[in-house]
């Protein structure tokens, strides 16, 4: 197996977590890193046994195949373009850009340079998430009628606003299942946003917050099943499926008996718990801290010569940014 040589641009909080995952991706060689602070870069290089480059140009001139860009969103376009124009493949942290226009410029630069580029939306590559998306997209549960997804933490470090830092996760979930919405309505501001995406035949209700601990899970209502993707949304490891195929008339006698039980508060709790336990659950643990999966995808694409990921193509990252822009317009 050909080793894929990685470089790291930006050595902040997430780069340490990503590299911990990267080390679990087979056939990976972590070669070099760069940060504006030589001390921080040297400490990062020492922690991870890499070479600290003296300048961005030195990193771009190194032998790395791909560069993981983990600078703040305001720097994503500049850094992605610098890497692509230097002939390097790019794994670009989420949010892919600050706007759809920037996202399109990055995608155009990747195509012009004939180099691989992908958004580091790690949630998209975690096995439980992929399995749920595949089963819904294949129509196993019938058409999606509605979904809800949220991501929010009390006192979250969301310098670029809840929508860009956190909202892109539930928005990516909605896009993975339903694509681009027809219309968007939203309320909120810098710290919290609630949005409804309308698809005509379905609606997606999205919430994000940097001040409130939300449920951080997702629920999908399809024609024949309700699927519950269990928290945390960014790295789920299981989802439960409740079939809703039986006609109501067939359930009536049993329901009559159940109603007598559920009207007693002390028994209701146990009935709910038993029902939850009876729901078939798909459990697919993530490797390590979960970041290995996106790195494995990049390695596989580079080895096969693919210029985009089939799981998360550039058009999907652009479409999510189009919806981010639409939410912003709706907030004005
Ligand atoms: N996937 C995830 O789970 C996840 C989680 C958190 C964040 N993120 C994303 O990852 C990115 C980084 O977040 P973070 O939390 O790691 O931020 P951070 O801790 O502030 O690190 C940002 C890094 O970028 C460098 N940097 C900042 N401004 C720069 C500039 N103008 N030019 C060059 N380098 C610059 C900083 O390094 P120096 O000052 O040393 O140069 C620092 O190394 C963001 O896009 C964020 O949305 C992803």
Structural overview:
With 332 residues, the protein is α/β, with parallel strands linked by helices. It has helices spanning 13-22, 38-48, 56-61, 73-85, 100-113, 127-137, 162-178, 248-262, 265-278, 292-304, 314-331; strands at 4-9, 28-34, 51-52, 66-69, 89-93, 117-120, 144-152, 183-188, 192-198, 203-209, 218-222, 225-229, 238-243, 281-283. Strands 8-9-10-7-11-12-13-14 form an 8-stranded mixed β-sheet, covered by helices on one side. A 6-stranded parallel β-sheet has the order 3-2-1-4-5-6. Strand 9 and strand 10 (203-209) form a beta hairpin. Mean pLDDT is 94; it is low at 247-253. The site of NADP nicotinamide-adenine-dinucleotide phosphate has 20 residues, from helix 1 and helix 4.
What's the layout of helices and strands?
Layout: E1 4-9, H1 13-22, E2 28-34, H2 38-48, E3 51-52, H3 56-61, E4 66-69, H4 73-85, E5 89-93, H5 100-113, E6 117-120, H6 127-137, E7 144-152, H7 162-178, E8 183-188, E9 192-198, E10 203-209, E11 218-222, E12 225-229, E13 238-243, H8 248-262, H9 265-278, E14 281-283, H10 292-304, H11 314-331
Parallel strand pairs: 1-2, 1-4, 2-3, 4-5, 5-6, 7-10
Antiparallel strand pairs: 7-11, 8-9, 9-10, 11-12, 12-13, 13-14
The structure holds NADP nicotinamide-adenine-dinucleotide phosphate.
Residues 10-15, 35-37, 40, 70-73, 75, 93-94, 120, 122, 165 line the site of NADP nicotinamide-adenine-dinucleotide phosphate (NAP).
* Count of separate DSSP helical elements: 11
Number of beta-strand segments? 14
* CATH architecture term of the largest domain: 2-Layer Sandwich
Average pLDDT confidence is 94
Radius of gyration over C-alpha positions, nearest whole angstrom: 22 Å
How far apart the termini lie comes to: 52 Å
The count of domains is 2
Q: What small molecules accompany the polymer chains?
A: NADP nicotinamide-adenine-dinucleotide phosphate
> In percent, how much strand structure appears in the residues?
15-25%
Low-confidence stretches: 247-253
Structural class: alpha/beta
